[in-house]
Amino acid sequence: MMRKSLLVLVLMATGMIATHARQDAKPETKPDAKKWDVADPTGPTTPLAFDTSEGTWMNVDVSPDGTQVVFDLLGDVYLMPIGGGAAPARRLTSGPVFDMQPRFSPDGKRIALTSDRDGLWNIWTMDVDGKDARQISRERRWFVNSPTWSPDGRYIYARRHFVKERSLGAGEIWMYHSSGPSDGLQVTERTGWQKDAGEPDISPDGSTLYYSKDVTPGQTFEYNKDPNGTIYAIIRRDLTTGRERRAVSVQGGSVTPQVSPDGKSLAYVRRVRLQSFLYVRDLESGRDRQVFANVDKDLQEAWAIHGLYPQYAWTPDGRSIVIWGEGKIWRVDVASGKGQPIPFQARVEQTLNAPVRTPRPVHPAEFPVRMLRDVRVAPDGKLVVYSALGHLYTRPLPAGEPKRLTSAGADTYEFFPSFSRDGQWIVYTTWSDANQGRVRVIKPDGSAGRDVVTRPGHYVEP
Predict the structure, then answer these.
(1) Does residue 109 fall inside a structural domain?
(2) Is 90 contained in some domain?
(3) Residue 392: beta bridge partners?
(4) Strand pairing of 339-341 and 328-333?
């Protein structure tokens, strides 16, 4: 009994000592690992600012009340009246973050956009004044882009990118709750890993999804596709039954669908030979009509994970389409096909990061030659001559330093050296683009050089 009591006392004492030691020990400190932020500069930067009235590959949208236009330019989002004007457009986002593809919510209170502000392309929303940015998709591996709202404003459909065998990848349409953030729900299935699909748009009644899809045969992406055939088609998917069919499948392809506000017409971009055009299809009759020609070339032959043409929009009354083309924003009258540029001014403010440069010697004074041509040894075995990099060199044998034999200019090349039988001369040929070729002889020490055949021509192996 005494032994047990002593053992208990020892264990209790040991435990108290260990506890006391743990309490006295300082907690292990770890250095604060600052979270990486795409907006933070990664080195020396230079500010760049300018005003512009034109832009490249600009996505545009019209507010539900038809009074405003939102567009992207060089990674920032701008807002302006639909009539444009001389006053600068209001910049809603700025900084190194790249924001693009803005789309108004059905109530006009929020704007969905594609942004890399969390380090990867994801869908975000913000107020129309650019504040209260909220992440909608929380993708950590693939790109998510090309947002479009459901008519009730509860969901945002977007293209999700997948990569496996090749960097080209494939696309699927997913939907995300507009309250975000979420992992989303899959809507369409990709065709393999190299066939693109994207550019979703929802019908006004919310029942139908339209999107563009690569319908060329096979599972492999090919660069040499025929744009006069049908590379892309616009797919119509019933969101209730999941059934799909081709809504537009024409020669020259069809991309970037946008349904009219009444749901009766579908605008899309189509290739006609070497030029792209804006078309409108009557969904009831299937009749197509070419509407506008001042658009840029689409990307059907290329790999276009952000869309085959910049997003555009109908005006709420369905009479006009606002679209980018040729550096400008156009308001196109659907009935007549006449387009009127919407004048805009935008103040661009960007930050240029100094590139990382590693010095690389382009042509060092000396370097090892990997190939010696026409190597010939003197009859007495004490000297070797050869051609290297277009010039003749000699070197004593069995050891010694190479030495240039002639003093010909850099534009004259020397080939096919050969010793005379008595070792007193070296014969060789030359070539220059200006004077053509000659046959020459020279002493092994580089003296007494002269032409023995002066007629211009091509000479080899003297």
Answers:
(1) yes
(2) yes
(3) 387
(4) antiparallel
CATH of the domain at 113: 2.120.10.30
Can you say whether the dihedral through the CA atoms of 17, 19, 23, 29 is positive or negative?
Answer: positive
pLDDT, tens only, 443-461: 999 999 999 999 999 999 9
Residue 28: the pLDDT is 53
Mean pLDDT lowest for which of 88-102, 132-146, 157-171?
Answer: 157-171
Assess if residue 380 is contained within a domain.
yes
Q: How confident is residue 9, by pLDDT bands cut at 50, 70 and 90?
A: very low
Nearest to residue 176, comparing CAs of 158, 200, 193?
158
Q: Say whether both 190 and 54 belong to one domain.
A: yes
> Could you tell me the end-to-end alpha-carbon distance of the chain, in angstroms, rounded to an integer?
114
Expressed as residue numbers, the domain containing 434 is 373-457
Q: Which residue(s) pair with 236 in the sheet?
A: 210, 245
Note the Cα 350 to chain centre separation in Å. Answer: 19
Q: Which residues neighbour 183 within 8 Å (Cβ) at sequence distance 6 or greater?
A: 137, 138, 139
How many other C-beta atoms are found inside a 10 Å radius of the C-beta of residue 133?
17
Q: 321 and 258: one domain?
A: yes
Question: Do both 380 and 284 map to the same domain?
Answer: no
Q: Nearest Cα to 193, choosing from 169, 209, 216, 229? A: 169
The pLDDT tens digits of the residues spanning 294-335 come to 999 999 998 888 999 999 999 999 999 999 999 999 999 999
Q: Are strands 346-353 and 185-186 parallel, antiparallel or unpaired?
A: unpaired
Distances (CA, A) of 457 to 375, 411, 435, 452: 23, 16, 9, 13
Going by C-beta distance under 8 Å and a sequence separation of 6 or more, which residues neighbour residue 16?
none
Whether the predicted pLDDT of 127 surpasses 90: yes
- Is there a single domain that holds both residue 346 and residue 379? no
199 and 77 share a domain? yes
81's CB contacts (< 8 A; 6+ apart) are 67, 68, 69
Of 351, 415, 292, 380, the C-alpha closest to 49 is 351
- Written as one letter, the residue type at 293 is A
Task: For residue 191, count other CB atoms closer than 10 A to its CB.
Answer: 17
Q: What does the chain come to in residues?
A: 462
Over residues 109-114, the mean pLDDT reads 98
Q: In DSSP terms, which residues pair with 418 in a beta bridge?
A: 427
Is pTM beyond 0.90? Reply is no
Same domain, yes or no, for 217 and 312?
yes
Split into its structural domains, the chain has a count of 2
Boundary residue ending a domain (353, 383, 413): 353
Contact (CB, 8 A) for 268 and 258: yes
* Residue 248 within any structural domain of the chain: yes
The dihedral sign for the CA sequence 225, 227, 230, 232: positive
If we measure between CA atoms, which residue out of 274, 149, 320, 276 comes closest to residue 329? 320
Residues 251, 291, single domain; the answer is yes
Please check whether residue 304 is in contact with residue 196, taking contact to mean a CB–CB distance below 8 angstroms. Answer: yes
